[in-house]
Write a structure and sequence with these properties.
Number of strands: 0
Oligomer: single chain
Strand content: under 5%
Radius of gyration: 21 Å
């Protein structure tokens, strides 16, 4: 393999890595928004059934060379990262949403 080919492959790997980081960051933003909405509606943050469906959908889409075990590990780490990062990012947003919801509920009480 020539040095030129090595550099070309390294550049492509770097592009791929940057795309992965961009995709993970977008996922974190979307899940943070989802958690705020779920919090406003009094819904639980985590949905184990949804996580199982996600893994099944990704396994069906996986054409390799990533193994099934590798995919399961990757998805598990992604979900752990998402949960931890989103929990930190939404603490203030969820508290504000709860406070606003309580305030709105108090304002709708009938006056006696």
């Amino acid at each position: 393999m020539t040095d030129e080919r090595i550099e070309e492959l390294r550049a492509r790997v770097g592009e791929n890595d940057r795309a992965i980081v961009e995709s993970v960051n977008e996922r974190l933003r979307l899940v943070a928004e989802l958690w705020v909405l779920k919090g406003e509606r009094g819904l639980g943050r985590l949905d184990p059934e949804r996580e199982r469906r996600l893994l099944a959908e990704l396994a069906a889409a996986n054409t390799g060379p990533l193994s099934d075990a590798g995919l399961e590990h990757l998805v598990g780490e992604l979900l752990r990262l998402t949960t931890a990062s989103t929990a930190r990012a939404t603490r203030g947003s969820l508290a504000a949403a709860r406070k606003a919801s309580r305030s709105l509920a108090r304002s709708r009480r009938p006056v006696e």
